[in-house]
Amino acid sequence: MNRLFSVAVAAFVLSHGFAVAGETYTDPDKTDADFAIQGEYEGKLHEGEDAVKYGVQLIAEGNGKFQAVAYPGGLPGAGWDGNGPLRIQKRGELKDGKVIIEDTLGKGVVENGQLTIYAPGSNTAIGTLKRIQRQSPTLGAKPPQGAVVLYGGPDDVENWVGGKASEEGLLMQGVTSKQKFGDHTLHVEFRLPYQPENRGQGRGNSGLYLQGRYEVQMLDSFGLEGKQNECGGIYSVASPALNMCLPPLTWQTYDVEYTAGTFDDAGKVVKNPRVTVKHNGVVIHDNVELPGERNTTSAPTKAGPEPGPVYLQNHGNPVRYQNIWAVEKK
């Protein structure tokens, strides 16, 4: 790669808000030392009448560095009261098997699957949070009678244009369903790669395009703010009500209720399409109106009255899928 091309690539990467660096892991049994530490922690601070539940998301950023985000009341979707969250500015660092995070709010020490919190300037612990692994309540949901099974195993790659299965038998990104849909219910299970040194749109990026027109973003947005271009966002249309993204290499679910737009004989929009989306069992979009006259960014199918396919975007990251089915509404 010559220097001029290198500069051009760097400029493109920076202007589009993502960077590609370091290792990419697709197997939870083959990761780095940080993987077993990053994740979600839950417990109570203080005791008795003063006890308050807290959740903390610890985000691996590569080379033993971590960012912590604290949620009063519990983790998102599991008690968080909507205040904050408290994004600890100073990064924690892994040394001698421990991660120590110090801030004006206090100190946290992560060791052996526990996060112990200390009051500012004190060696007295005020609480211990344990590392937990949440699972979507709709993970493994069986297709109901009359459902169209789009992917239940490697044999179903034939249901997709460009369909390929990984060595583990999982559907790979960058595929379009051969079947097209109007009004429908859709269940998709996806697993984002672990890319601790990557940032922004370069970290576990893909997308679920409804009718090939409207993107529900897939991205490793664990611990981020929950914007329209992050996991669960309807790209360029609406941010999720809550960031329900679980840690990378965790199986996650989208459950979608999609109502197609209606058009007159001249092709003019009479009624815009609408969508309700559950991310890991929690409603993040409730009957949101979509722009019937236009599709979202990078959609392979233009807005219009015709049925459209399920499209799983290839954005250069190895996102994997399983258990995909749809139910057409009559």
From TrEMBL:
* Superkingdom as given in the UniProt entry: Bacteria
Say if the entry is tagged with keyword Signal: yes
**Region Disordered, residue ranges:** 291-313
- Show the GO MF annotations: hydrolase activity
- Which residues does UniProt assign to the signal peptide? 1-21
Keyword line: Signal
DNA repair listed as a keyword: no
> Where in this chain does the record put each 3-keto-alpha-glucoside-1,2-lyase/3-keto-2-hydroxy-glucal hydratase domain?
156-325
Name by which UniProt lists this protein: 3-keto-alpha-glucoside-1,2-lyase/3-keto-2-hydroxy-glucal hydratase domain-containing protein
| Naturally occurring in which organism (per UniProt) | Lignipirellula cremea
